[in-house]
Write a structure and sequence with these properties.
By secondary structure, this protein is α/β, with parallel strands linked by helices. The protein folds into two domains: 6-216, DHBP synthase (Alpha-Beta Complex); 244-351, Threonylcarbamoyl-AMP synthase, C-terminal domain (Rossmann fold, 3-Layer(aba) Sandwich), CATH 3.40.50.11030. It is 34% helix and 20% strand. It contains twelve helices and 17 strands. Strands 1, 2, 3, 4, 5, 6, 7, 8, 9, 10, 11 and 12 form a twelve-stranded mixed beta sheet that branches. It has a five-stranded parallel beta sheet with strand order 15-14-16-13-17, sandwiched between helices. β11 (195-198), α8 (204-211) and β12 (215-216) form a beta-alpha-beta unit. α11 (299-314) packs parallel to α12. It is globular and about 60 Å long. The protein binds adenosine monophosphate and magnesium ion.
Length: 352
């Protein structure tokens, strides 16, 4: 798999042309990375097993980690899923198109490779004009996990996709940076009480308004080998830079003190330290490399900068990255998702 990856740069005049060239690749069983509102996805025809297999190969994705299938209208859902309950329809009405993935009982038309043999399928309708036009034009649901090498931080720009997958995929559509920056919320609707399998921008408190009780089915830690998990993806290392990552959690003043102490501890001799910190923390501490996440009170900004920051510092030849966990509302909305990704990425968690 050492081919040339075509780069389609969206400009105001060439939208239709690019979408039809990219859709043609999908129809022919190829792979195209494209922007969604969450992160860039690596897409292939969800109903074509050979095409879907190329996604696993390009990413080095474990064969037991099922894919999310992206649709452009609810008619496509009826092809994939059976038994769509009223409460699920309410969620679709409220949050689609948008960053909420729902798990359904699947129909036989969905190949085993897409769902890794599960009798369920994960589906969402992305809120991005490029993604929607591509799915429509391809005329088929598109399976698309994040367009990164497995285990690395998800891509939020086309440059991130190219850095990971150039030569391994047929094309990438560059539609600029994504809006949300962390992957979709995943909610399993196949049991009596819905189960939240991954936090995202759509928060559990918003979901509860539509379906009542929701169980929490994810952890913030990496699940140990051999432990049973309901969503196979939960057990793999995720979002990780290659550099050692230390996450510091606590009140903002305690975190600032701890980060200063760690900069002194790690920054001896030739060792270089990188900081992934809020604007407020950066006013009080410094190091060899500093990446600003945004204000600690602006969790949306932090979410959209998070993966770019991990990738940026990873390229800066630092020996350790110290991440600031003192973000504002970390218990609601996208703050929950940011903390979840940081904790899963971290090699060491310091809770103050
Ligand atoms: P990614 O596409 O890389 O963002 O990952 C998709 C996530 O959805 C992974 O955590 C998968 O394990 C999860 N997922 C996909 N399909 C299913 C399914 N049928 N049941 C449970 N989890 C799923
Ligand atoms: Mg992923």
């Amino acid at each position: 798999m050492d081919n040339i990856t075509r780069i389609f740069q969206i400009e105001s005049s060439n939208f239709d042309e690019i979408i039809s060239a990219a859709a043609q690749i999908i129809k022919q069983g190829g792979t195209v990375a494209f922007p969604t509102e969450t992160v860039y996805g690596l897409g292939a025809d969800a109903l074509n097993p050979e095409a879907v297999q190329k996604i696993f190969q390009a990413k080095g994705r474990p064969q037991d980690n099922p894919l999310i299938v992206h649709i452009a209208d609810t008619e496509q859902l009826d092809v994939l899923a059976k038994e769509v309950s009223d409460s699920t329809r309410n969620l679709m009405d409220a949050f689609w198109p948008g960053p909420l993935t729902l798990i359904f009982r699947r129909r036989d038309i969905v190949p085993d490779v897409t769902t890794c043999g599960l009798d369920t399928v994960a589906v969402r309708m992305p809120d991005n004009p490029v993604a929607i036009a591509l799915i429509r034009q391809a005329g088929t649901p598109i399976a698309a996990p994040s367009a990164n090498i497995s285990g690395r931080p998800s891509p939020t720009t086309a440059e991130h996709v190219i850095a990971d997958l150039s030569g391994r995929i047929d094309a990438v559509i560059d539609g600029g940076p994504v809006r949300v920056g962390v992957e979709s919320t995943v909610l399993d609707m196949t049991s009596d009480i819905p189960v939240l399998l991954r936090p995202g921008e759509v928060g559990v408190e918003q979901i509860r308004e539509y379906v009542g009780e929701v169980l929490i089915g994810y952890t913030d830690t990496q699940v140990g080998a051999g432990e049973a998990v309901r969503s196979p993806g939960l057990k793999y290392t995720h979002y990780s830079p290659e550099t050692r990552l230390v996450l510091v959690r606590g009140t903002s003043s305690a975190v600032v003190d701890k980060i200063s102490e760690l900069v002194r501890k790690y920054g001896h001799g030739n060792s270089r330290v990188g900081l992934l910190v809020t604007d407020e923390t950066a006013e009080q501490v410094s190091a060899d490399e500093v990446f600003l996440l945004g204000s600690r009170y602006d969790t949306s900004a932090i979410a959209s900068n998070l993966f770019a920051g991990l990738r940026h510092l990873d390229l800066k030849d630092v020996d350790v990255i110290i991440a600031d966990g003192s973000i504002g509302s970390d218990r609601v909305g996208v703050g929950v998702a940011v903390l979840n990704r940081l904790k899963k990425a971290a090699d060491e968690l310091i809770e103050l």
